Amino acid sequence: GAGVSQTPSNKVTEKGKYVELRCDPISGHTALYWYRQSLGQGPEFLIYFQGTGAADDSGLPNDRFFAVRPEGSVSTLKIQRTERGDSAVYLCASSSTSGIAETQYFGPGTRLLVL
Amino acid sequence: RKEVEQDPGPFNVPEGATVAFNCTYSNSASQSFFWYRQDCRKEPKLLMSVYSSGNEDGRFTAQLNRASQYISLLIRDSKLSDSATYLCVVNYNQGGKLIFGQGTELSVKP
């Protein structure tokens, strides 16, 4: 079946611009996660949704970052006033529930480059 | 101190070698443990969960020592296709927030 998909696969933007990154989880998965991975590092948790609500947004670095999942399926990560330090791969994952031992399936990521 | 620490490597080994990766975690409340594999410029994929009694999946063996807060992964009879970065991962809250180590790079040579 279809896995997690993310668009765009690559995004180049200029410092100060606004970007939106989209994630389409596996059909039927209620939990959705966003992570950010910088070069040479492991993924870093940003936020996760159970259904439509953000259950844990403790990883969002500041108020420039915001994510929504209005219908409990597709999610959008929004970054305002981008900075060069925001350049990274943004990974989305989904799982059937948000249980502590549930397998998370990752999408291919969006590579964001802020010039 | 990072919550999950791994030796970044790289580990360069010949085909057929046995290689071991170690990982330590700082939060004693950690409840779930995993090894993920990440190929170059690809997404992480679950390799195996790690259970308290230790577990094996073919050539791969994972061990957990809760007292020492230590996790290991052993790969026997290394194949060229095992070349990747191996990520140690823990989960300590009731939701699905995963905490990743920085990854250990493995390169298996002919």
Descriptive account of the structure:
The complex is a heterodimer of chains A (115) and B (110). Chain A is 0% helix and 48% strand. Chain A contains no helices and eleven strands. In chain A, the strands form two sheets. In chain A, strands 2, 4, 5, 6, 9, 10 and 11 form a seven-stranded mixed beta sheet that branches. In chain A, strand 7 and strand 8 form a beta hairpin. In chain A, 35% of the residues are buried. The mean pLDDT of chain A is 94. Chain B has 110 residues and is an all-beta fold. Chain B has strands at 4-6, 11-14, 19-25, 32-38, 44-50, 55-57, 60-65, 70-75, 84-91, 99-100, 104-109. Chain B is globular, with a radius of gyration of 13 Å. Chain B starts with a strand and ends with a strand. The model of chain B has no long low-confidence stretch (mean pLDDT 93). Chains A and B meet through strand 4 and strand 5 of A and strand 5, strand 9 and strand 10 of B.
Question: How do the helices and strands line up, and which of them pair or pack?
Answer:
The complex is a heterodimer of chains A (about 120) and B (about 110).
Chain A: E1 5-7, E2 10-13, E3 19-24, E4 31-37, E5 44-50, E6 53-56, E7 65-68, E8 75-79, E9 88-95, E10 105-106, E11 110-114
Parallel strand pairs in A: 2-11
Antiparallel strand pairs in A: 1-3, 3-8, 4-5, 4-9, 5-6, 7-8, 9-10, 9-11
Chain B: E1 4-6, E2 11-14, E3 19-25, E4 32-38, E5 44-50, E6 55-57, E7 60-65, E8 70-75, E9 84-91, E10 99-100, E11 104-109
Parallel strand pairs in B: 2-11
Antiparallel strand pairs in B: 1-3, 3-8, 4-5, 4-9, 6-7, 7-8, 9-10, 9-11
